[in-house]
């Protein structure tokens, strides 16, 4: 069973084309589901039949590109519920559906690692990985969007200094960065945070 969190944001919900974006420290309640994306996923054979859902934990454990640290810590939080968020969609432009897997921590749902798997015949190839926490990846209108909380030297986990939202696009061989938006958070009276004006850097 896959464990995913319902995101509650310190600075508001992120709306995108495909499911949840990790809210970092503000993530609270948990439910078990697999997040749908833009359309019903195609089969790995390209026949258009629904893609058979894979076991994301087995996929990660068999992947040599996943660090030994992530594998070692990937254990059930409760019962058989693993802290893994998996979604299906089109992000590499292939005939078959791609798989985006986010590994979270049990204690606080912190994004430990994000991975994208592309169908290649009867198997899946890791074509993207980011293991610099906190990190969370999702598919948005055919692009890969990676969100990373930014912490200053004196920041507490609950109150990061800002957030980077990085957009990647598949060029036929790999993902390349297309856009990067950095938002600075400013403290408000009630102890929460609100975003300062964002800055965008396009490549």
Tags for this model:
203 residues; mainly beta; 6-stranded antiparallel β-sheet; 4-stranded antiparallel β-sheet; flat; disordered N terminus; Lipoprotein CseA
**Count of distinct structural domains:** 1
Low-confidence stretches: 2-50
Shape: flat
Radius of gyration: 17 Å
Specify the number of helices: 2
| Multimerization status | single chain
Decide which structural class fits the backbone.
mainly beta
User: What percent of residues are in strands?
Assistant: 35-45%
Mean pLDDT: 76
- How many strands, which pairing sense, and closed or not: the largest β-sheet? 6 strands, antiparallel
N-to-C SSE series? EEHHEEEEEEEEEE
Fraction in helix = under 10%
Number of strands: 12
Separation of the first and last Cα atoms? 39 Å
Protein name: Lipoprotein CseA
Region (Disordered): 20-50
Biased composition (Low complexity): 34-50
Structure description:
The chain is mainly beta. The protein has one domain (4-202). Helices cover 6% and strands 38% of the residues. The protein has helices at 56-61, 68-73; strands at 4-5, 30-31, 84-89, 98-104, 111-120, 123-130, 135-140, 143-150, 162-170, 175-187, 193-195, 199-202. Strand 3 and strand 4 (98-104) form a beta hairpin.
């Amino acid at each position: 069973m896959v464990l995913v969190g319902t995101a509650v944001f310190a600075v508001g919900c992120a709306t995108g084309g495909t499911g949840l974006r990790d809210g970092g420290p503000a993530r609270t309640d948990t439910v078990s589901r697999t997040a749908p994306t833009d359309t019903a996923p195609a089969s790995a054979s390209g026949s258009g039949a629904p893609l058979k859902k894979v076991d994301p934990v087995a996929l990660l454990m068999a992947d040599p590109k996943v660090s030994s640290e992530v594998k070692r810590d990937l254990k059930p939080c409760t019962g058989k519920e693993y802290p893994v968020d998996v979604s299906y969609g089109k992000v590499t432009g292939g005939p078959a559906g791609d798989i985006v897997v986010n590994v979270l921590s049990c204690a606080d749902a912190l994004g430990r690692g994000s991975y994208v798997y592309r169908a290649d015949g009867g198997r899946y190839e890791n074509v993207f990985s980011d293991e610099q926490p906190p990190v969370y990846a999702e598919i948005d209108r055919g692009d890969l969007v990676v969100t990373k909380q930014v912490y200053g030297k004196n920041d507490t986990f609950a109150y990061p200094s800002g957030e980077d939202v990085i957009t990647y696009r598949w060029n036929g061989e790999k993902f390349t960065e297309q856009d990067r938006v950095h938002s600075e958070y400013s403290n408000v009276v009630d102890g929460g945070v609100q975003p300062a004006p964002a800055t965008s850097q396009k490549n």
